[in-house]
């Protein structure tokens, strides 16, 4: 066997080995592809589940904050009304409700006075 023939034989065997390695990688890749797809789907599903959980937690937090804000507004309004009523009382100024009671009493007294005037006139 000559060097040229030996070189060609080695080259053919090297090409065959390279082809076998490439074919082996292709087979491995083909076998791994469905598993890889499954792993990707699991990752996406997990991500979607985590994302949904985060959105749910955010919405729950948002609702709690809104409820607390509403409670604080109510407490603040009640406090202001209470302070205002106390101030009016200390200053001796009648409240709307007290004025309404006085208006009714005055109206009743005016009717009675008119009735008395009619009685006296007759």
Could you please describe the fold and organization of this structure?
Helix content is 94%, strand content 0%. It is built from two helices and no strands. The protein has helices at residues 3-91, 96-121.
What's the quick description here?
The longest helix is centred in the middle third of the chain and has 89 residues, at about 5-90. The protein is mainly α and about 120 residues long.
Taken from the alpha-carbon principal axes, the silhouette is: rod-shaped
State the helix count. 2
Q: Low-confidence parts lasting 5 or more residues at pLDDT below 50?
A: none
Largest sheet: none
**Overall mean pLDDT score?**
87
Task: Calculate Rg over CA atoms.
Answer: 47 Å
| Element pattern in H and E | HH
Amino- and carboxy-terminal Cα gap = 158 Å
Percent helix, as a range, is: over 70%
Number of strands: 0
Structural class: mainly alpha
Estimated share of beta-strand residues:
under 5%
Keywords:
rod-shaped, 122 residues, 94% helix, mainly alpha
């Amino acid at each position: 066997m000559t060097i040229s023939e030996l070189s060609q034989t080695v080259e053919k065997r090297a090409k065959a080995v390279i082809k076998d390695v490439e074919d082996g990688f292709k087979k491995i890749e083909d076998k791994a592809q469905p598993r890889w797809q499954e792993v990707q789907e699991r990752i996406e599903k997990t991500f979607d589940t985590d994302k949904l959980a985060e959105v749910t937690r955010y919405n729950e937090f948002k609702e709690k904050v809104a409820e607390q804000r509403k409670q604080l507004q109510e407490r603040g309004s009640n406090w202001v009304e209470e302070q205002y009523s106390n101030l009016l009382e200390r200053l001796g100024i009648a409240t709307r409700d007290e004025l309404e009671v006085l208006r009714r009493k005055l109206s009743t007294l005016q009717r009675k006075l008119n009735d008395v005037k009619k009685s006296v006139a007759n």
